[in-house]
Amino acid sequence: MISENPRVRFAPSPTGYLHVGGLRTALYNYLFAKRNNGAFILRIEDTDRTRLVEGAVKNLITTLKWAGLDFDEGPGKDGGFGPYVQSERLALYKRYADELVQQKKAYYCFCTSDRIKQLRDEQQKTGLQSKYDKHCLHLTENEIRDTLKNNEPYVIRLNVQPNELINIEDIIRGEVTFNSNVVDDQILLKSDGYPTYHLANVVDDHLMKITHVIRGEEWLSSTPKHILLYNYFGWEIPKFAHLPLLLNPDKSKLSKRQGDVAVEDYRAKGYLKDALVNFVAMLGWSAGDDREFYYLDELCSSFSLERVNKSGAVFNIEKLQAMNFAHLQKKTDGELLNLLKEEVAVSSFNDHLLSDEKLLLIIQSMKERINFVKEIILNASYFFIAPQTYDQDAVKKRWTAESAGLLQKFAETIRGVENPSKEDFENALHQVAEIAGVKNGAIIHPLRLAVSGVSGGPGLYDIIFILGKEETLGRINIALEKIII
Ligand code: GLU
User: Fold this and answer.
1) Which phi and psi angles does 309 have, rounded to 5°?
2) pTM of the entire structure?
């Protein structure tokens, strides 16, 4: 049974960009919250000062917003449980670490990094698990007091009790059991006064009243430490759901080396947010049928953690592309117009302003031929600028000795038509072909080449109608001068 009004959180560390795996974690948390009338919280886990990246938090928030995943509570949006940035909560962690020390559930450790390294080397040599040996647990009260007085650097470690069975009831993975003998005396508070991930994460999940911890499988091995912390504090343990790993097609862990992993990169490439969100949602979840096309609000009403798979989910880029195509086809022309204008604004054609009416015609002619809106500009630049060159293979194949004469005749015919419609262009071409005793193709192909510089693309009559009479005539003239065979 899901508690009333569950509270879930996405808790990224601001180390640069938002990973697609992070987007999936954020999305599943968001969907779970929406489906169950809960709250979706964004918490920034920035206690590892060595990994901080300037601007990462802002970037993260912008990217989540772009994807449509608005948080209910988080930085800049207090719901009574803030601050939501861990570096602003340091005093809290110190207080809780001290509390555990007083209860002997944690202890001061003054070991130098040299000693720790030596210990690790020895353990490695003898094939033992790398673990702290509780050396400092045996210091006397006086020794501890004196060393602290001397301002010696220290950390606080969890005092893990041996031979305890730690059970995790994971919503996705079922029951997972660890023995406390394999759990290290984890550092809770570092010598710089910052908490480690483990302490800060548990303290915050407790104080923020998180009911369900939904996160990537890579955190499963940390969960026994968290459970011990909950137990040692005497706090209620939240429910856990560890999401399956994202894999490359060769089943290795999804990595930068095999392609883009940053959501920002997909956005920059022109993927639609609807498509990326839909695709990411299907990485490890399905409603139990073969439906694959969803909008965010539809996902909100269909999602459940129980239907998330245990096994890794392959990140298949072809599938993402197909998803983008499918979402693009469902967009209205008006929506595509806005997207196209954004692309034009950042392209080299930003000063070749075309009317909305023209852009809409371009969209209609290109929609079914593109996976990305920006392909309209990349593949059909001729709508924005006259061809600078002519595809030489197409010239060889399509431009014959009679082409120039036929194009001239077509130009003459069209010159006499006022405001020619698409049909007028078509009729003029048929008429010229008939009189000259040639097939329509003898004019269509060279004309396409003359106005676009290439051999493929949307229907010729669409192209020249969109270009308009004057532009078409101008381009025929230039082609007649430039294409000499
Ligand atoms: N800060 C961790 C991360 O970067 C959060 C893990 C968790 O959700 O507990 O993913």
Assistant:
1) -75, 160
2) 0.91
Specify the pLDDT at position 484.
Answer: 61
Number of helices and strands in the chain (H, E)? 20, 11
How many domains would you assign to the chain?
A: 4
Residue nearest to atom 3 of ligand 1 (CA): 12
456 and 413 in a common domain = yes
Q: How would residue 50 be classed by pLDDT, with cut points 50, 70 and 90?
A: confident
Question: Alpha-carbon distance 46 to 40, whole Å?
Answer: 19
Which atom of ligand 1 lies at the shortest distance from residue 201's CA? Answer: 9
State the CATH number of the domain containing residue 65.
3.40.50.620
- Catalytic (active site) residue 209: no
* Confidence at 350, pLDDT banded by 50, 70, 90: confident
Q: At what angle do helices 356-366 and 333-345 cross, to 10 degrees?
A: 110
Tokens matching residue 463: 């192209």
Whether residue 351 has pLDDT greater than 90 = no
Q: Which residues does a 6 A CB cutoff place in the pocket of ligand 1?
A: 11-13, 45, 197, 201, 215, 219
Q: What is the CATH number of the domain that holds 428?
A: 1.10.10.350
Could you tell me if residue 325 is inside a domain? no
**85 vs 354: CA distance, rounded Å:** 46
What distance in Å separates the CA atoms of residue 303 and residue 308, rounded to the nearest whole number?
A: 9
Residue span of the structural domain in which 397 resides: 386-485
Residue 291, φ and ψ in degrees, nearest 5? -65, 135
Dist. CA 44 → ligand 1 center (Å): 9
Residues 277 and 351 in one domain: no
**345 shares a domain with 283:** no
109 plus 218 within the same structural domain: yes
